Amino acid sequence: MDGVQKVFFPGTANQRHILKNINLNINQGDFISVIGNNGAGKSTLLNTVAGTLIADAGTIEIAGNDITKKPVAGRSKWISRVFQDPKLGTAGDLTVEQNLSIAINRKRHFNLTWFKSKSERNHFKEVLAKLDMGLENRLDTQAKYLSGGQRQVLSLIMATLSKPNLLLLDEHTAALDPKTSEAVMKLTNQIIKENNLTVLMITHKMEDALKYGNRLLMLQDGEIKVNVSGDEKQQLEESDLMEMFES
Q1: 101 closest CA partner among 154, 165, 164, 168
Q2: 191: burial class by Cβ within 10 Å (0-12, 13-18, 19+)?
Q3: Rounded to the nearest 5°, which phi and psi values hold at 37?
Q4: Are 169 and 86 contacting, i.e. CB atoms less than 8 angstroms apart?
Q5: Residues 220-238: what's their mean pLDDT?
Q6: What is the mean pLDDT of residues 153-161?
Q7: Which residues does the UniProt record annotate as the domain ABC transporter (predicted)?
Q8: Most buried of the four, 34, 138, 145, 152, by CB within 10 Å?
Q9: Could you tell me if residue 232 is inside a domain?
Q10: Measured distance CA(96)–CA(86) in Å, rounded
């Protein structure tokens, strides 16, 4: 991202300059946590990368491609997203297997015969068995009958089966109870490491921002105020982040 700006209601009394000259390089394999207070611009940043919002100025490139003006569908070749609401990432009336088939074949022409592929079914079982949530035994269960945690993990698997260039995690554990949230976050980290994925994660949980990933950004008033990585990030504690917020 180079010089990205986003303004809502420009030229009116309600004008709000949300993103202010955002410059951000994301390297292959980066797992970046983004924190900030309410209104800091976290969601706007993620939506601008995803294509839900189009930047008013600046450029966004991924894998050498300028995607600045592309809509969500035009970016799906490179970007996958897991939402806060587990229901948004899955089709409730389709089975676990059907949801996964759509996800793994999303770059090809749709064909219902995919649902009958034994090789894909075995592959899904192998992937799900690693998660130790029993989903490998529920391939024929409609997604709407899964628990919130199971459905969010299904969303995560769907988003990562095609190994996207960039995975966006939009507070994807916020709607879950604390125990399930912790379990899903551990599985998230496992999947990211196993597939060497590049990740941008929005979170309100400072403990997750500190514990997971190799980089941490803090947004404040539409600007990146803190950008730490490596040993500098590992040495941070929650008290340090609180001081940063206050300052």
Answers
A1: 154
A2: buried
A3: -75, 175
A4: no
A5: 93
A6: 94
A7: 2-246
A8: 152
A9: yes
A10: 13
Phi, psi (degrees; rounded to nearest 5) at 10:
-60, 145
Range of the domain at 141: 27-52+71-246
Asked if residue 14 is part of any domain, the answer here is no
Domain count, the chain: 1
Contact 169, 117 (CB under 8 A): no
CATH number of the domain bearing residue 118: 3.40.50.300
Model-wide pTM > 0.85: yes
Task: Give the mean pLDDT of 89-110.
Answer: 83
Inside any domain, residue 8: no
Burial class (CB in 10 A: 0-12, 13-18, 19+), 27: exposed
Instruction: Please determine, for residue 38, whether its predicted confidence score (pLDDT) is greater than 80.
Output: yes
Tokens for 51, please give them. 């294509």
Per residue, the 3-state secondary structure of the chain, as one string, reads: CEEEEEEECCCCCCCEEEEEEECCCCCCCCEEEEECCCCCCHHHHHHHHHCCCCCCEEECEECCEECCCCCHHHHCCCEEEECCCHHHHCCCCCEHHHHHHHHHCCCCCCCHHHHHCHHHHHHHHHHHHCCCCCHHHCCCCEHHHCCHHHHHHHHHHHHHCCCCCEEEEECCCCCCCHHHHHHHHHHHHHHHHHHCCCEEEECCCHHHHHHCCCEEEEEECCEEEEEEEHHHHHCCCHHHHHHHHHC
Residue 152 scores a pLDDT above 80: yes
139 and 124 in contact (C-beta within 8 Å)? yes
Domain-embedded: residue 3: no
What's the angle, vertex CA 81, arms to CA 127 and CA 194, rounded to 5?
35
Q: Report residue 228 as tokens.
A: 């730490």
